[in-house]
């Protein structure tokens, strides 16, 4: 038979997530760290990998790495879980706390994968849009959860793509106001130096998501983790894929996490460059900038889609959000190296002048 039955109904109308990865001389679209892992650590990683038996399955829960992360965060092993990138763990929260008849509270504009995962799992998405400055409409969120029908909430801090932090006091009030599981996505927290980790000690309904992809230069490795109560982590384990974190990724991450202090100068350099990039962008006519606590900046400019094309013609790839709801005429640029940022600023000046 030369035909196939239809896929699941919830897939109808879904467009696959597209990171808009295109070749370019200056890649500033994916919030990657501009610096690769240094040679000394690469040698240590190579030694660690050589000891991995490739014919054996990996430790299914990456317990050695769990122990390292738990100790660094003042937690027990059973309060940590690794995943194949933060993306797996984001899907797992939808699997474990979503589903037909359940509701996810979303705070757009934010990472589009959250709502996509809800749809894939048959979860209803309830949107509470952010305010005009892209801060959270705190009163509206608290009012909505007070209805008692929300199963889980995801708050990104700093928010992607807008860059702002969630107020820690608000997160605490939200945790007190609802028994819904509240995930705080801290994928970029190393660049903000702010975390809600202290709230874990008092709130079972808090789970924190982090990643190795950004601050630790391991976007290629695909490794993320969550911190939470033992009760919550146990539910995540029920829905996770077996052996989702391979032995080679575990080996790489162990070396990097042991040596995480060596990444601090690079993180600080990104923070410094963020300030310089914001200042440079704000001086370009026609550009409206937004403050950021992450390793990227969002800005608005007239005819943003055309500006994106002209930047790409100059060899600079940024992320185009100009057609996304709430983000009309917005672009997002990753904070790159000093040389990459200079090239971007020069291209932006030339493009902006042409638009005057």
Describe the structure.
- The chain is an alpha/beta fold.
- 38% of the residues lie in helices and 15% in strands.
- The chain contains 12 helices and 13 strands.
- The strands form 3 sheets. It has a 7-stranded mixed beta sheet, sandwiched between helices. A 4-stranded antiparallel beta sheet has the order 9-10-13-12, with helices on one face. Strands 1-11 form a two-stranded parallel ribbon.
- Helix 1 (39-50) crosses helix 9, helix 2 (63-72) packs parallel to helix 9 and helix 10 runs parallel beside helix 12.
- 42% of the residues are buried.
- The model has no long low-confidence stretch (mean pLDDT 96).
SSE layout and pairing:
Elements: E1 26-27, H1 39-50, H2 63-72, E2 80-83, H3 85-97, E3 103-106, H4 113-120, E4 124-127, H5 138-145, E5 152-156, H6 168-177, E6 181-185, H7 189-192, E7 206-211, E8 224-228, H8 230-239, H9 247-258, H10 264-282, E9 287-289, E10 296-301, H11 304-313, E11 316-317, E12 319-320, E13 330-334, H12 338-355
Parallel strand pairs: 1-11, 3-4, 3-5, 5-6, 6-7
Antiparallel strand pairs: 2-8, 7-8, 9-10, 10-13, 12-13
Helicity range of the residues? Answer: 25-40%
Low-confidence stretches: none
Which whole number gives the mean pLDDT? 96
Q: How many H/I helices?
A: 12
Question: What is the helix/strand order?
Answer: EHHEHEHEHEHEHEEHHHEEHEEEH
Distance between the termini: 60 Å
Radius of gyration: 21 Å
Strands, total number: 13
Strand arrangement across the biggest beta sheet: 2-8-7-6-5-3-4
Main beta sheet: 7 strands, mixed
Strand content: 5-15%
Gross morphology is globular
What structural class do helix, strand and pairing data support?
alpha/beta
């Amino acid at each position: 038979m030369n035909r196939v039955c239809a896929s699941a109904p919830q897939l109808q109308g879904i467009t696959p997530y597209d990171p808009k990865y295109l070749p370019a001389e200056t890649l500033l679209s994916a919030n990657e760290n501009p610096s690769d892992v240094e040679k000394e650590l690469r040698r240590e990683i190579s030694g660690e990998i050589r000891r991995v038996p490739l014919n054996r399955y990996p430790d299914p829960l990456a317990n050695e790495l769990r122990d390292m992360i738990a100790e660094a965060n003042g937690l027990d092993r059973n309060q940590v879980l690794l995943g194949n990138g933060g993306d797996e763990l984001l899907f797992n929260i939808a699997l474990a706390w979503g589903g037909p008849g359940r509701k996810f509270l979303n705070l757009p504009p934010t990472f589009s994968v959250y709502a996509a995962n809800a749809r894939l799992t048959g979860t209803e998405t309830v949107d509470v849009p952010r305010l005009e400055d892209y801060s959270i409409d705190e009163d509206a969120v608290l009012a909505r959860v007070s209805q008692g029908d929300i199963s889980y909430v995801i708050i990104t801090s700093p928010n992607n793509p807008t860059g702002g932090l969630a107020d820690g006091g608000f997160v605490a009030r939200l945790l007190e106001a609802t028994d819904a599981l509240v995930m705080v996505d801290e994928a970029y927290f190393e660049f903000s130096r702010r975390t809600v980790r202290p709230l874990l000690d008092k709130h079972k309904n808090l789970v924190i998501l982090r990643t190795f992809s950004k601050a630790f230069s391991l976007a290629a490795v695909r490794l993320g983790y969550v911190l939470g109560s033992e009760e919550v982590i146990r539910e995540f384990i029920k829905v996770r894929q077996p052996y989702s974190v391979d032995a080679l990724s575990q080996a790489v991450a162990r070396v990097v996490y042991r040596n995480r202090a060596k990444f601090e100068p690079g993180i600080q350099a990104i923070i410094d460059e963020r300030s310089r990039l914001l200042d440079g962008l704000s001086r370009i006519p026609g550009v409206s900038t937004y403050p950021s606590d992450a390793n990227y900046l969002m800005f608005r400019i007239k005819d943003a889609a055309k500006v994106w094309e002209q930047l790409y013609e100059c060899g600079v790839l940024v992320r185009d959000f100009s057609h996304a709801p709430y983000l009309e005429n917005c672009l997002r640029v990753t904070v790159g190296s000093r040389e990459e940022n200079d090239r971007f600023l020069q291209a932006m000046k030339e493009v902006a002048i042409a638009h005057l």
